[in-house]
């Protein structure tokens, strides 16, 4: 008596196929074993499946029952094998006779046979439909998420007994229809709008350049000057997410177990703002389940490090690799997983420990030594990876009342989208989207300077002893500034503006 059920498990944010094989022998002593490199959650499946089936009066555990999760050479984890294991047993003993070859079955069981939602459903359903397994049987709480894959026929259940009824033909059910439209992606509303930011012309300009070329960006200014306020408004000037970006972000959040029951597509660009006490694992990912960290949750959006210099030095150091590679690899118990990390880094910091260096309202009380120690945390290599640095001056209280409402996010976003279009056209034969992602050979190919710009660059390079990495960062930012001005060539004024926003001393 043998049966086989299709299921899946997660490898990073991809679903991988698993066949749950079951053999119930007529002879031998009672036993129940699960083989096939499962983790402790899978071992615990035994108890849940046994109780759930016994409570429905299906007691086949007086026979030897063997479950194999094939392929057996891959480590698997998750509690979502409960349901396929239970169904495979019922199939092996003939309670369920109908064909299940076109079904993917996932779900956790409670001891009394209720179905519980699980993580990572979107990725697993995507895998199933890609190999023509169309019918998806899962907990009702995961139904909405699974139906984001249009080819899937999704059937959601609350009870194991209903799943059995469905397979035996006693319960009739239509697939779940998702009424959510992906076209809504362009109609996302952000409640934090740039029109609330008064004054701050330099920081607003830097924010727009940053969004236009997806450049990393740091703001330096005294307390209350509006740094956090500007950072929070960055998602509102970025173009709407593409369906692909939206699905990828939803998968990452699903794998991290963050959308178990809501199940709708993530349509707003993520804005992830970890606390400065966060650990390396929280930022990069890892832990016992190798979960995605903040760098991956922020993929497609913004990772905001508020009070940036309060983060431990090791956190700032580990960020360097994903900032460069746009993905992060986590090693855990004999296997490695890779998650996307396509975030834009925005940092905010005070210019000195007391916060008032360069402020015209209040005197700084720090010694030169204190200031140097404070800044030293932002190591050279980290600073090298930042394209834009902007000083944010405090707005006087009377000006806050006087200065008229700032330009609205909607209008800025139109210009940003135009700059993105120019880049999409430029990079149509490359595998990148934005100026900030150019490699050295692309920089040489696409950042052409006119004569005047060339001379300016030479003077600046010699005068300020600029590193090679900073040099190419300045060229990339200049490219974005030129694109914003619809200019084919990079001119002297583009170079000067990019340079002014790169050199930290000019921001302080
Ligand atoms: N340019 C501005 N326009 C309108 N309101 C502002 C502006 N700057 C500051 N504010 C007001 O001041 C508050 C504090 O600003 P915010 O928290 O962004 O400052 P911050 O620079 O992050 O300060 P800190 O260094 O203390 O974190 C805002 O919530 C806002 O109400
Ligand atoms: Mg702040
Ligand atoms: Zn100070």
Overview of the structural elements:
- The protein folds into 3 domains: 2-168, Ribosomal Protein S5, domain 2, CATH 3.30.230.10; 186-407, Rossmann fold, CATH 3.40.50.300; 438-508, Orthogonal Bundle (Helicase, Ruva Protein, domain 3).
- With 508 residues, the chain is α/β, with parallel strands linked by helices.
- Helix 1 (40-55) crosses helix 2 (82-92), helix 18 (451-464) packs parallel to helix 20 and helix 19 crosses helix 20 (492-500).
- The strands form 6 sheets. It has a 5-stranded parallel sheet. It has a 4-stranded mixed sheet with strand order 1-2-4-3.
- Strand 3, helix 1 and strand 4 (64-70) form a beta-alpha-beta unit.
- Helices cover 38% and strands 17% of the residues.
- It starts with a strand and ends with a helix.
- The chain has 21 helices and 18 strands.
């Amino acid at each position: 008596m043998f049966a086989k059920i299709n299921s899946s498990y997660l490898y990073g944010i991809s679903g991988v196929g698993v066949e749950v094989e079951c053999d119930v022998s007529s002879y031998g002593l009672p036993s129940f074993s699960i083989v096939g490199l499962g983790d402790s959650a899978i071992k615990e499946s035994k108890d849940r499946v046994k109780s759930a089936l016994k409570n429905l009066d299906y007691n086949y555990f007086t026979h030897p029952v063997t479950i194999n999760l094939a392929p057996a050479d891959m480590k698997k984890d998750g509690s979502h094998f409960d349901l396929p294991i239970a169904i495979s047993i019922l199939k092996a003993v003939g309670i369920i006779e109908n064909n299940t070859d076109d079904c993917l079955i996932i779900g956790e069981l409670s001891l009394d046979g209720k179905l519980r939602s699980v993580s990572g459903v979107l990725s697993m359903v995507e895998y199933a439909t890609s190999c023509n397994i169309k019918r998806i049987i899962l907990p009702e709480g995961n139904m909405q998420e699974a139906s984001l894959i249009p080819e899937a026929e999704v059937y959601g259940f609350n009870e194991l007994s209903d799943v059995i009824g469905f397979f035996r033909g006693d319960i009739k059910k239509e697939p779940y229809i998702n009424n959510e439209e992906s076209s809504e992606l362009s109609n996302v509303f952000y409640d934090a709008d740039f029109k609330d930011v008064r004054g701050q012309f330099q920081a607003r300009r830097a924010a727009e350049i940053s969004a236009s070329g997806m450049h990393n960006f740091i703001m330096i200014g005294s307390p209350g000057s509006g740094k956090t306020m500007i950072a929070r408004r960055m998602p509102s000037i970025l173009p709407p997410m593409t369906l692909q970006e939206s699905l990828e972000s939803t998968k990452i959040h699903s794998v991290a177990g963050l959308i178990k029951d809501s199940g709708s597509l993530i349509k707003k660009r993520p804005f992830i703002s970890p606390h400065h006490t966060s650990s390396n694992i929280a930022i990069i990912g890892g832990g016992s389940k190798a979960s995605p960290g903040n760098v991956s949750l922020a993929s497609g959006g913004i990772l905001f490090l508020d009070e940036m210099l309060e983060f431990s030095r090791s956190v700032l150091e580990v960020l360097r690799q994903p900032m460069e590679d746009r993905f992060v690899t986590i090693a855990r118990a004999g296997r490695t997983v890779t998650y996307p990390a396509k975030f834009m880094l925005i940092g905010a910091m005070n210019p000195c420990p007391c916060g008032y260096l360069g402020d015209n309202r209040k005197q700084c009380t720090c010694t030169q030594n204190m200031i140097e120690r404070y800044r030293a945390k932002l190591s050279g290599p980290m600073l090298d990876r930042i394209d834009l640095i902007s000083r944010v001056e405090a707005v006087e209280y009377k000006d806050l009342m006087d200065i008229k409402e700032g330009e609205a996010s909607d209008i800025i976003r139109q210009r940003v989208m135009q700059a993105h279009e120019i880049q999409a056209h430029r990079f149509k034969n490359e595998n990148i989207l934005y100026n900030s992602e150019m490699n050295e050979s692309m920089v040489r190919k696409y950042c052409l300077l006119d004569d005047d710009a060339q001379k300016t660059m030479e003077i600046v390079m010699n005068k300020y002893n600029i590193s090679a990495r900073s040099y190419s960062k300045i060229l990339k930012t200049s490219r974005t500034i030129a694109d914003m001005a619809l200019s084919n060539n990079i001119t002297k004024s583009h170079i000067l503006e990019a340079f002014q926003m790169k050199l930290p001393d000019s921001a302080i």
